[in-house]
């Protein structure tokens, strides 16, 4: 009895801490439902008593093209990242290439380069190639956020595939390509999911590349949609926050459906076990 | 277990397709052919790294060593000026404040993110009802797009209508101009960035706590050590390797924070929250007349700093993997 009440107490503290931590998220929701005339009220209303959907109507009216661009860019980034990283992970994990250690090192170092530097380099290159304000250009730039991480995840995961399986495939006459396609890739489904989730989330959230490479173009992602909103009309915060809520949906979906992959990805990047 | 059965199902398929007349049974591969196969699988990534990492980096170094204007940027005939851009940057009155802000921002964020993350990790490491669910919810700030977090914090910290000032008013503290006063802007972006960084520290440190054997705590409790004593004599020392990794990686990540600061304050007012990352962007893209050369020079200084700490991180990690 005593023990149980002690646990109950901890749950209460846990709920309180989570509430404090997630207060900004609640506030975003609250403001997104607040009417214009209540926006500057002092003190601000803690609950959207006279809730309105004006903000969300504004999203539907103005932000759908941005959301569409973000979706296309996100999916493109996922495809490019997996296509590049999965074969590389297989080679590094199982084929023992000479110089593989150096490549892993370069990949780790590549993750350390600040995005703003990459953005400037991409800007210079795209300017001379005439690739500024193009969706494929943004996809390539966004994929640099995920590719090194993806190779490391695939390598770590594929190292766990038993060597006897691959040996057996070889004995049956399967070449490396066939082994990769029919055995390694199907067995690495979890790694593919983890990599895809992160690649999508990072490209969906990207602001640096978007603001340097496609700013002012015909196809801008949702991060720029919000940014323009903040810059243009400082008054309609319900519309800004409603867009922010919609832009957060992928993160929410991922958290609900795939939380274990997320935690796995975070720790795999930092700690080796 | 299920994996092996899955592959046993697949093997006959492989036999079937490989047994055609066009595919004679292969002799055992020599190591040489495996090397070829390995590098064939690696070729796309190597090409990719060269084109989309090495080349942009090279272009950035090139930018920093020439006197670029908008026109020569397009035509690509900017004169080579050596280290002049770097000298311009060092002599700029923004240099000293930007350096100071970068150091303060990084150090303060790291200390608080780590301390809060560790406290939460220890707390969630105890088993109680809902602990797993609540721990998962703590990931939310880390998963949100930075522009979402930054704009939410901007509105919360708004001088007239922000909820933070309303709360301060309720306890009798006058309004603080969080984002518009030079003495508070750096604090504001630090607060927002700590909020974003805590989940990462929590998750990594929690996984480190999980690997500390529970028997140690039981033995210490039998010897009469209280929770405080157990933390400092067992948890903290045993967590040192994970802590080192977390802090170093956090350092590399925090050095390059750009989005939060740019969206919340644009480095202002009057450069009061400018760091190297925002300064570099400001020089290259923030003005009507872009200064690509100096911008790239500032960026390269940042790359050097990030790589130095990155190399230390990799050394530490390798040492831990070996031991």
Total strands of chain A: 0
The CATH topology of chain B corresponds to: MetI-like fold
The backbone outline of chain A, from C-alpha atoms, is globular
Superfamily at the CATH H level of chain B?
A: MetI-like
Q: Radius of gyration of chain A, rounded?
A: 23 Å
Concise summary:
The complex is a heterodimer of chains A (273) and B (323). Chain A is built from 13 helices and no strands.
Question: What is the secondary structure topology, with strand pairs?
Answer:
The complex is a heterodimer of chains A (273) and B (323).
Chain A: H1 2-21, H2 23-32, H3 54-94, H4 100-112, H5 115-129, H6 135-159, H7 163-171, H8 176-187, H9 189-205, H10 208-213, H11 222-232, H12 237-257, H13 259-270
Chain B: H1 2-18, H2 31-64, H3 70-75, H4 84-91, H5 95-125, H6 131-137, H7 140-143, H8 146-156, H9 163-170, H10 185-210, H11 214-222, H12 227-238, H13 240-255, H14 259-265, H15 276-286, H16 292-322
Model description:
The complex is a heterodimer of chains A (273) and B (323). Chain A has helices spanning 2-21, 23-32, 54-94, 100-112, 115-129, 135-159, 163-171, 176-187, 189-205, 208-213, 222-232, 237-257, 259-270. By secondary structure, chain A is mainly alpha-helical. Chain A has one domain (52-270): Orthogonal Bundle (MetI-like fold). In chain A, helix 4 (100-112) packs across helix 6 (135-159), helix 9 (189-205) packs across helix 13 and helix 11 (222-232) runs antiparallel to helix 12 (237-257). The mean pLDDT of chain A is 85. Chain B is mainly α. Chain B has one domain: MetI-like (MetI-like fold), CATH 1.10.3720. Helix content of chain B is 74%, strand content 0%. Chain B has helices at 2-18, 31-64, 70-75, 84-91, 95-125, 131-137, 140-143, 146-156, 163-170, 185-210, 214-222, 227-238, 240-255, 259-265, 276-286, 292-322. In chain B, helix 2 runs antiparallel to helix 16 (292-322), helix 5 (95-125) runs antiparallel to helix 13 (240-255) and helix 8 (146-156) runs parallel beside helix 14. The two termini of chain B are 30 Å apart. Mean pLDDT of chain B is 82; it is low at 1-29. Classes of the chains: A mainly alpha (273), B mainly alpha (323).
